[in-house]
Amino acid sequence: FDFWALTPRSDILVFFGIWLILPFVWRRLVIPASGAVAALVVALLISGGILTWAGFNDPQEINGTLSANATPAEAISPVADQDWPAYGRNQEGQRFSPLKQINADNVHNLKEAWVFRTGDVKQPNDPGEITNEVTPIKVGDTLYLCTAHQRLFALDAASGKEKWHYDPELKTNESFQHVTCRGVSYHEAKAETASPEVMADCPRRIILPVNDGRLIAINAENGKLCETFANKGVLNLQSNMPDTKP
């Protein structure tokens, strides 16, 4: 029983039921029925008991324990001037580039350098809302971007040529309100804190969220799954969730 789902459905009925069992009300009924009043009292008590129990038992709550051991925090790595490795460029989300080659005086002279087409278009089974809202990230000489169907592309930043791409083969279903991908994340492991297996398998990785609840870690160098992440590179975010359908 969900307290917040039950409460708005029972408030009027409960108050109306309490009003009906008041002596000065039910005694004036055309046909006094003590049995009906007793049944109403029982119903109110049961309703109150259910609401009380539901108030202390949340069906959406996932019980568990967290380790009390402290995990050493990694120092925030500085961002190279020419890089944009996160949505807001750095972990502070400052959205500021220190580069000065392009400025207010010469921006009007910019010309198109290259065009890349992902080939990702709306499919017959897609919901009504499908949008391209990605903010690409740049690490070194590579741009990383995802499409509406969460296809991940790695492009040469200078030429726009594709280095590799990864397709999670998303299958749309009725639970999707819309299909989009606003961006991916980049993580670079450090030998001081990462295991030797991680350093050997996938020290530089791209984290790709997928509409169906998967979180995928992909090697930033070659586009292969990071075997040391979750279940051979794929984490199911819907695991142990009580309800995954609308």
Automatic annotation (TrEMBL):
<keyword id="KW-0634">PQQ</keyword>
<dbReference type="Pfam" id="PF01011">
    <property type="entry name" value="PQQ"/>
</dbReference>
<dbReference type="GO" id="GO:0008876">
    <property type="term" value="F:quinoprotein glucose dehydrogenase activity"/>
</dbReference>
<keyword id="KW-0812">Transmembrane</keyword>
<protein>
    <submittedName>
        <fullName>PQQ-binding-like beta-propeller repeat protein</fullName>
    </submittedName>
</protein>
<keyword id="KW-1133">Transmembrane helix</keyword>
<feature type="transmembrane region" description="Helical">
    <location>
        <begin position="37"/>
        <end position="56"/>
    </location>
</feature>
<dbReference type="InterPro" id="IPR011047">
    <property type="entry name" value="Quinoprotein_ADH-like_sf"/>
</dbReference>
<feature type="transmembrane region" description="Helical">
    <location>
        <begin position="12"/>
        <end position="30"/>
    </location>
</feature>
<keyword id="KW-0560">Oxidoreductase</keyword>
<dbReference type="InterPro" id="IPR001479">
    <property type="entry name" value="Quinoprotein_DH_CS"/>
</dbReference>
<feature type="domain" description="Pyrrolo-quinoline quinone repeat">
    <location>
        <begin position="84"/>
        <end position="245"/>
    </location>
</feature>
<dbReference type="InterPro" id="IPR018391">
    <property type="entry name" value="PQQ_b-propeller_rpt"/>
</dbReference>
<dbReference type="GO" id="GO:0030288">
    <property type="term" value="C:outer membrane-bounded periplasmic space"/>
</dbReference>
<dbReference type="InterPro" id="IPR002372">
    <property type="entry name" value="PQQ_rpt_dom"/>
</dbReference>
<comment type="similarity">
    <text>Belongs to the bacterial PQQ dehydrogenase family.</text>
</comment>
<keyword id="KW-0472">Membrane</keyword>
